[in-house]
């Protein structure tokens, strides 16, 4: 059953251990509806583990989390109905066309006649005309667009993006940024974005959280953060300042 | 729920049709299905001519008591008995490849994370896969049934009676169960294995054990029964090990079970239909697939080559 209306993502004492290694330690996190949340941290900080738990792909060792008011473990299917997910280095069936890939994923999301929806999403992403090409022929940027398309095809409430700019050229990054902002503004989708590209966080996110060695060490809105650290000249310096503390 | 399961099944069949290995094996299997009637017909003709020659010579020698033509009492379906061997060898291997490639496809493509972020549960997904495999194998057996039916009709100018057609249908039904067992075995190892080569090697090892080692310890003590769908011609050696091995293993030998049923249905010998091992094995291996997928770690789904 849904727990809260204000927060679309809630994590309480979330811990994930792999044998002796603790990937996440007692993580408490809340993300409000309509935010673009930038989840920062160095490689191995536990960002992907957090997203994997929130998207129901991984079970925590202890603690619990809810998305859109549904528990990620007990109501995983309800959570999945309400989220879209773009994994890092997104992959597809290379032997299928873009349309066939999207059709398959749309049907898995419960859309019975996905043709119109696919056209609508590709139109929104300004990506028409490539439907009948096989994914094997696509560039990284084109794949990312199809990745976004499969993630939003069922009109999710929350979109999880794991390092979405990874491997993209500057133009690809700019295009993706515009898409993310548009999804948030026009479709009202809450966005949870794992990244370590601080310049993108500054241009895209409304709130940031910093994860260090599996612990959340900072969380505030971007304007507040910039106020708090007004002596620092860039977000990069702010981030390094937070991490060093 | 049914819709998502059906989506996976449909995608499974589509992907199989696009696989060159599958298409090649299917072509060989269907060719053998058509050819088995011809081989049976050719064998029958050879024996007939040998019989006629023998009768001629015996009559010339003044022998009056001439034995009846052995083929007069054999039912038309018996000319298809080679099909038992083809299913036993080619069909089961093809089934392993179908089951293996079914789940490996997602793991190789690296799409497991996307799939399981959609509103489909792990068991629904594997049920969809199993459904797709079932439909593909059923289609293969239906086509084989049609090929056998028309081969007999054309070669012998003999239209099968209802009971003969039913026996032929039952034979392909049993073949479907036998092939499903191997397909689900391939699926199970594709789910639980860490590497792609192990995922294929493991069911093939099982196939070798079930097809060749188990029969050696049971009826294949008579060497002619290793591959052929014949009943035990000679008793097992009077040796404690073989006697105990036979009494323990034979009831559980899925290949013996299949060969016995195949023989009974095609040769009109209604002595035995030991369905028990076939059905039990199929249930066990299908259950293992569900257990395997429950333990399946989506975040570590990508497979090593």
Write a structural description.
The complex is a heterodimer of chains A (245) and B (305). Chain A has 245 residues and is α/β, with parallel strands linked by helices. Chain A has helices spanning 47-54, 76-82, 98-108, 115-124, 140-152, 170-186, 198-204, 222-228, 235-244, and strands at residues 7-18, 21-32, 36-40, 62-67, 70-71, 83-86, 158-162, 190-195, 207-212, 215-221. Chain A has nine helices and ten strands. In chain A, the strands form two sheets. Chain A has a six-stranded mixed beta sheet with strand order 6-7-8-3-9-10, sandwiched between helices. A four-stranded antiparallel beta sheet of chain A has the order 2-1-4-5, covered by helices on one side. In chain A, a hairpin with a 2-residue loop joins strand 1 and strand 2 (21-32). Chain A starts with 6 loop residues before the first strand and ends with a helix. In chain B, helix 3 (82-109) packs antiparallel against helix 5 (122-156) and helix 3 packs antiparallel against helix 7 (196-217). Chain B contains ten helices and no strands. The longest helix of chain B has 41 residues, at 20-60. Chain B has one domain (2-300). Chain B is elongated and about 85 Å long. Chain B is an all-alpha fold and 305 residues long. Chains A and B meet through helix 2, strand 6 and helix 3 of A and helix 1 and helix 4 of B.
What fraction of the residues of chain B are assigned to beta strands by DSSP? under 5%
Largest sheet of chain A: 6 strands, mixed
- Uncertain residue segments of chain B: none
CATH class of chain A: Alpha Beta
Helix content of chain B: over 70%
**What is the rounded Rg of chain B?**
22 Å
* Secondary-structure element order of chain A, N to C: EEEHEEHEHHHEHEHEEHH
* Structural class computed from helices and strand pairing of chain B: mainly alpha
| Count of folded domains of chain A | 1
Percent helix range of chain A: 25-40%
């Amino acid at each position: 059953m849904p727990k809260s209306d204000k927060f679309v993502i809630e994590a309480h004492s979330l811990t994930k251990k792999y044998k002796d290694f603790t990937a996440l330690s007692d993580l408490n996190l809340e993300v409000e509806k309509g935010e673009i949340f930038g989840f920062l941290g160095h490689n191995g900080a536990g960002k992907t583990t957090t997203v994997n738990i929130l998207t129901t792909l991984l079970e925590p060792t202890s603690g619990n989390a809810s998305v859109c008011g549904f528990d990620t473990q007990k109501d995983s299917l309800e959570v999945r109905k309400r989220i879209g997910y773009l994994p890092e280095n997104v992959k597809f069936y290379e032997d299928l066309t873009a349309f066939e890939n999207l059709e398959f994923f749309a049907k898995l999301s419960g859309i019975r006649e996905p043709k119109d929806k696919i056209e609508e999403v590709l139109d929104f992403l300004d990506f028409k005309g490539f439907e009948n090409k096989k994914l094997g022929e696509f560039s990284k940027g084109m794949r990312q667009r199809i990745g976004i398309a499969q993630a939003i095809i069922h009109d999710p409430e929350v979109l999880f993006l794991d390092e979405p700019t990874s491997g993209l050229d500057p133009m690809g990054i700019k295009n993706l940024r515009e898409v993310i902002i548009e999804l948030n503004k026009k479709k009202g989708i809450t966005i949870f974005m794992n990244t370590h590209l601080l310049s993108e966080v500054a241009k895209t996110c409304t709130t940031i959280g910093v994860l260090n060695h599996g612990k959340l060490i900072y969380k505030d809105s971007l304007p507040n953060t910039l106020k708090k650290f007004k002596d620092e000249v860039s977000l990069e310096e702010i981030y390094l300042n937070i991490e060093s503390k | 729920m049914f819709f998502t399961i059906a989506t996976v099944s449909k995608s499974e069949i589509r992907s199989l049709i696009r696989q060159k290995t599958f298409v090649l094996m299917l072509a060989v299997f269907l060719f053998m299905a058509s050819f088995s009637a011809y081989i049976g017909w050719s064998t029958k003709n050879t024996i007939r001519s040998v019989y006629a020659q023998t009768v001629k010579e015996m009559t010339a020698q003044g022998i009056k008591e001439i034995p009846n033509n052995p083929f007069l009492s054999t039912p038309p379906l018996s000319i298809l008995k080679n099909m038992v061997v083809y299913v036993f060898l080619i069909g089961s291997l093809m089934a392993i490849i179908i089951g293996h490639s079914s789940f490996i496809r997602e793991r190789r493509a690296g799409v497991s994370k996307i799939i399981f972020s959609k509103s489909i549960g792990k068991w629904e997904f594997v049920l969809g896969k199993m459904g797709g495999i079932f439909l593909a194998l059923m289609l293969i057996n239906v086509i084989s049934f049609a090929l056998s039916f028309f081969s007999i009709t054309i070669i012998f100018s003999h239209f099968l009676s209802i009971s003969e057609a039913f026996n032929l249908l039952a034979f392909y039904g049993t073949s479907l169960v036998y092939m499903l067992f191997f397909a689900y075995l391939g699926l199970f190892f594709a789910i639980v294995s860490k590497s792609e080569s192990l995922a294929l090697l493991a069911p093939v090892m099982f196939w070798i054990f079930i097809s060749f080692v188990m029969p050696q310890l049971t009826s294949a003590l008579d060497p002619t029964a290793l591959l052929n769908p014949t009943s035990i011609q000679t008793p097992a050696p009077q040796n404690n090990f073989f006697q105990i091995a036979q009494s323990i293993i034979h009831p559980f030998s899925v290949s013996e079970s299949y060969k016995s049923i195949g023989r009974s249905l095609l040769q009109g010998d209604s002595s035995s239909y030991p369905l028990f091992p076939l059905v039990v094995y199929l249930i066990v291996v299908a259950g293992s697939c569900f257990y395997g997928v429950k333990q399946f770690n989506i975040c570590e789904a990508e497979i090593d080559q």
